[in-house]
Design brief:
- A 5-stranded mixed beta sheet has the order 2-1-5-3-4, covered by helices on one side.
- The chain is an alpha/beta fold and 207 residues long.
- It is rod-shaped.
- The protein has a domain at 98-202: Alpha-Beta Plaits (2-Layer Sandwich), CATH 3.30.70.2390.
- 49% of the residues lie in helices and 13% in strands.
C-alpha cells in the first residue's frame, strides 16, 4: 500500500540533517583553527633615529648649554668689573697707598694740566687711589713738543707703577711711557710715582 509516501520524500529530511551536521562541524573546525592560530597583532615599531637626526639633537642640546642668557652675560660683565676694581685696589695696597701723579703743563695753553687730570679721573683713575699735583712746565728752548709719561726704573713696585702709567697714556690718548731721567725731565721725581709732561700735541685734544 502506497499511503502517498515515496522514497524520495523520505530522503529529504535525512539530507537536511546531514547538511546541518556538516555545517556545525565546519563551524567547530573554524573556531578551533582561529583559537589555536590567534595572536595579538604586531605593534608598529617607530623608525629609529638616523645619525643626522641624532647629531642635530645633540648639537641643539649643546648650543642650549653653551649659549649664556642675557642675565648670565650681565653677571659675567659685573664680575669682571668687580675683579678689575679689586686688582686695582690690591696694586694700590702693594704700592703702599695712592699713586702720586705730577702733571705739568708744557703745551703753552692755559688749563692743559687740569684738562689732563679731568680726563684721567673720568677714565677711572680717581682721587680715591690717586693724588694729583698740577703745575706749569717749560723746558729750555721752548715748550714740550709731545706728551711724555715718566716712571722710575727701580723699586719693588716698579712693574705696578709702569702698568699704572700705561693706563695714563691710554686714558689721555697721547704720549708714551719712558723711564725717568732727571737730567732729561729737568725736575726731581722723588715725591711722585708718575710724572706727566703735557706737550703741544695735546692742543685741540684735551681741550
Amino acid at each position: 500500500m502506497n499511503n502517498g509516501f515515496t522514497h524520495n520524500q523520505a530522503r529529504i529530511p535525512a539530507a537536511r540533517a546531514t547538511g546541518f551536521a556538516l555545517a556545525i562541524l565546519l563551524l567547530a573546525c573554524g573556531a578551533s583553527l582561529l583559537s589555536s592560530c590567534g595572536h595579538e597583532p604586531e605593534k608598529a615599531t617607530p623608525p629609529a633615529q638616523t645619525e643626522t637626526q641624532s647629531a642635530n639633537a645633540a648639537s641643539t642640546e649643546t648650543s642650549k648649554e653653551a649659549t649664556p642668557t642675557s642675565t648670565e652675560e650681565g653677571n659675567v660683565d659685573k664680575t669682571a668689573d668687580e675683579k678689575a676694581k679689586q686688582d686695582d685696589s690690591a696694586k694700590a695696597a702693594k704700592h703702599q697707598g695712592a699713586y702720586a701723579i705730577a702733571i705739568r703743563n708744557g703745551g703753552g695753553a692755559d688749563g692743559l694740566a687740569g684738562a689732563a687730570q679731568a680726563k684721567l679721573v673720568a677714565a677711572g683713575l680717581t682721587e680715591d687711589n690717586h693724588t694729583y699735583a698740577l703745575d706749569s712746565y717749560a723746558i729750555a728752548g721752548g715748550l714740550a713738543p709731545t706728551t711724555v709719561v715718566y716712571v722710575k726704573g727701580t723699586g719693588d713696585d716698579a712693574a705696578d707703577v709702569k702698568a699704572e702709567a700705561e693706563k695714563v697714556v691710554s686714558a689721555l690718548g697721547l704720549g708714551s711711557v719712558q723711564t725717568f731721567d732727571e737730567a732729561t725731565a729737568g725736575e726731581s721725581m722723588d715725591e711722585f710715582d708718575i710724572f706727566v709732561i703735557v706737550g703741544k700735541d695735546a692742543l685741540g685734544t684735551l681741550q
